[in-house]
Structure formats: C-alpha cells, structure tokens
Amino acid sequence: MSVIDLSQPLSDVLREGTKKAHEEVEVSPAASAMLKGELAKEEYVRFLMMLWHIYDTFERGLERHQNHPVLEPTYNPTLLARAPHLSADIAHLLGVTESQWKSHRIHAQLTANGTLPPALATYTARIQEIADSSDPSALLAHAYVRYLGDLSGGQTIQRALAKAYGLTMGGAGLSFYSFKELHSSKPASIGEMKKIKDWFRAGMNKGAGDNMDVKAAVMEEASRVFEFTGTIFKEVDRHRADAKSRVVFENKDDEPRSYPLASVISVILAICVAHFALTVFGFTGERGYEKLVMVEEWLAGLGGVRKPE
Questions:
Q1: What is the pLDDT of residue 262?
Q2: What does residue 249 show for φ and ψ, rounded to 5 degrees?
Q3: Which percentage of the chain shows pLDDT scores above 70?
Q4: Binding-site residues for heme b, please?
Q5: What's the mean pLDDT in 10-21?
Q6: Which end of the chain is flanked by fewer CB atoms within 10 Å, N or C?
Q7: DSSP state string for 27-46
Q8: SS3 164
Q9: How high is the mean pLDDT of the chain?
Q10: In CATH terms, is domain 10-245 a member of 3.10.50.40?
Q11: Which residues sit in the known binding site?
C-alpha cells in the first residue's frame, strides 16, 4: 500500500487514498445491474429504503454538529440533503404518500422484528457512533463519499433508471439524483454539478486545514465508507438471489389479484367439455347448432347461472 502525503489538501488525500476502494465498489454485481437498468423495481425501492436510513442518520449528525470547524464549511442542507428526496422517490414508486411508505410491506420486511439487515445496521451504527463522539470530524468522510458520488456516478445511474422504469430525468421517482444550482434554485446541469463538487472540495480543504490528524482520520473513515457501501450492494445481491424473498411488485393497495377456485375449475371443465363435444359430435349444419345450444345451456347450469331471457 502506497503512503499518502498528508501535507496535501484533504481533497487530494481522499482522491488518492480511496481510489482502490472506490473501484472495488463499482464492479459489484448490484451496482452493475443498476447501471444497466436491470435491477427489478421492487429491489430498487428496497435499496432506496436502505439509503434513506443511511442518509437520515448522517444528515442528522451533520445538523447536530453544523458549527463544528471541520464540518461547517461544507454544511449546506438546502443544497445537499438527500433524505427528503429519497422519501419522496420511495413514496412515488410505491404509489403511496410519504407518511405511508414506512408501513409498506417492503419496508416492514426490511425492518422485520425491529432490526435492520446486518450490513445496514453496522453502517448506520458507525455513523451514530461518530455523531455521538467528542470529535465528529469523520462525518465529513460520509458526506464526501455519498454526496460526491451522487453528483458524479449517480447521474449515470439516473439515466439507466429513467429508461428502465419509464421515469423522467429529474422528475418524480428520480429526485434523489437532482440538485439545484450552487447559488440559485434552478435545476443544476452537469456543469453546475461540477461547480458544486469544486465548492465541496474547497470546503473540505478549509475545514481540515493543515491538521494531518484530521486528514488521516477522514481518509481512513472514507475508505471504511466505501467498504460499507460494498456491503450494502452485497445485501442487495443476497436479497436478489434469495428466491423466497422475491415478490411481485404490487399495486399500492398491496392486494394481488386472485380468483375463486370454483370459478377456475368451472372454466377448465367448460373448455374440456367443449373440446370433447366439438371433436366427437361436431357442430355443423342445423342439427349442429341445436346441439351447440344444448351444450351451452348445460355449461351455464354447471356454473350455477342461467342464460338471460
């Protein structure tokens, strides 16, 4: 492992120090499926729910420590906060209100018995540990990995998802990937997103200053965040591979359409009898028509109904 020069600005330290970890996450099967638009909609919604728990936890931590000297230069929830957008997207994709999605079957399964999947629980617990510590500087690593990822590769993912799920770029269901301009409320173009990233990097450099201990701690935590992200994708892969966990993406009322068994049996029996009669007796000519009417009346009787007069 190469030694990172901690005398560099923090943004350069992070770029060099997390390069390998970043590349490893990009080649995960779940990430590849998402980039190709091959992730089933229900699996994607479940993934968004996991992201919501992550963002909600660390954004609450950032809010709590917004005046910390390392975190203050990059704290701009109006520009960056993603948890509200995740909530809106989840609700839209499920066809429910934002107040309802946490009680939806998918989220209920995700949080069964009041616990999160191990990978997600470990990730959020680590964020909470930092937020509760005497030095929350490492929260900057979580903001760096997540926000700059959303502003970069997230835009490629958005295009794939828009095509796969029939959504509009930047519209409902994909607002998580949309940002406003740095100094206005207009939707940010790719060029404007680059300006946001440059602003964020400058803020990180200002917050860390020349403190090598802070740089080392943030770099170490950033590598850990990429590892956590990898475990989240592995959780997606595990769930996809578990046939017993797969269910059809249902309507918002969560009630799959079904038919009474008696009706199904009646239809099958009717088809069988009709095939037999057609094969043996035939229904041609005047006598054929009379036989057809007799069979029709008999079938109506089997179904417990009578032909309308």
A1: 52
A2: -65, 115
A3: 77
A4: 15, 22, 144, 201
A5: 90
A6: C
A7: TSHHHHHHHTT-S-HHHHHH
A8: helix
A9: 84
A10: no
A11: 15, 22, 144, 201
Indicate the domain borders of the chain. 10-245, 261-302
Q: Take residue 224 and report the two structure tokens written for it.
A: 């850990």
Give me 9's structure tokens.
């600005």
Count Cβ atoms within 10 A of the Cβ of residue 270 and give its class: 0-12 exposed, 13-18 middle, 19 or more buried. middle
Phi, psi of 99, deg, nearest 5: -80, -10
CA 225/CA 12 separation, integer angstroms: 17
Q: Give every CB contact of residue 254 below 8 A, 6+ residues apart in sequence.
A: 104, 105
Amino acid at 97: T
Query: Among all chains, which residue has been given the structure tokens 């029939």?
Result: 166
What value does the mean pLDDT take over residues 41-63? Answer: 97
Residues 6+ apart with CB under 8 A from 91: 97, 98, 100, 101
**What are the pLDDT digits (tens) for 229-278?**
999 999 999 998 883 444 444 444 544 444 455 554 554 555 555 455 54
pLDDT higher than threshold 60 for residue 166? yes
CA gap 136, 128 in Å, rounded: 10
Six-digit token string for 50: 């996991």
